[in-house]
Design a protein that fits this description.
This protein is α+β, with helices and mostly antiparallel strands and 263 residues long. It has one domain. 33% of the residues lie in helices and 18% in strands. The chain contains ten helices and ten strands. A seven-stranded mixed beta sheet has the order 4-5-2-1-6-10-9. Strands 3-7-8 form a three-stranded antiparallel beta sheet, with no helix packed on it. A hairpin with a 7-residue loop joins strand 4 and strand 5.
Amino acid sequence: MEKFLRDIGLKQNQHVMIHAAYRKIRREFPGLNIEDFLRIIQDIITPEGSVILATFSYCFAKVNEPSKIYNPDETPSKVGAVSEVFRKMPEVIRTASATHSFALWGRASGEIQPDNAPESPLGEGSVLEWLSRQQDAFILMLGTDFLSLSFCHYLETMAPVPWHDTFPWAYLGIRPAGVSIKGEQELHEVPGCSKSFVNFENYLLNRKIIHPFRYHSLFGYFIHVGLLLEHGLSFFRSRPLELLCPKNQCSACDSRRQNKIKK
């Protein structure tokens, strides 16, 4: 695994956000547990760099029933086993966002405060904004595609897309507010559906702007964040409708499409 990661470009002092499907990793690296996988990455990057994983828990305020209360020390991550293991590892801090928290190790954990909980969960003031400002920042995707790429939500707020401030989840009986042990926090620019981010992925692939790697059946990307910013802002501004699911297939996207029509 260490040789494989070094071969795809992982180096000392980089700031790396990871999206990983452990089931697919284990298929090619049998016997490698999640904690050892993460420690290999930490050893390569060193504490002068950063390891970042999303640990979203989606503790929104509910309309007609009690809300789940976010506690950064106890609330499980809902975005995969790798993130759940990482948040419990030594020297890892977890941010205070009730809906869209992150686990941080290395330099990021010293520069981003544990109480980080911006009103725009993945926009201004977020961990993703910090990542976008680092010179040597990358996204590592192992066994995942752009459906998992949280950085696209940051691009939505920076473009901004026409519906960036439209709350898309009201039909689920929740409000644009997070609930944590510190109380309730009103939110704006709440991330919506990510299924159509694969259209942005295909755009980059077709133009050979990004290049996937393969290790037998394991597929992924190692992408410089600056490249995603450059091409993402252009794509999101010029082709925003391609970021929504087809009409009548997704209530969240339909609400945002309707908002664009009104505007």
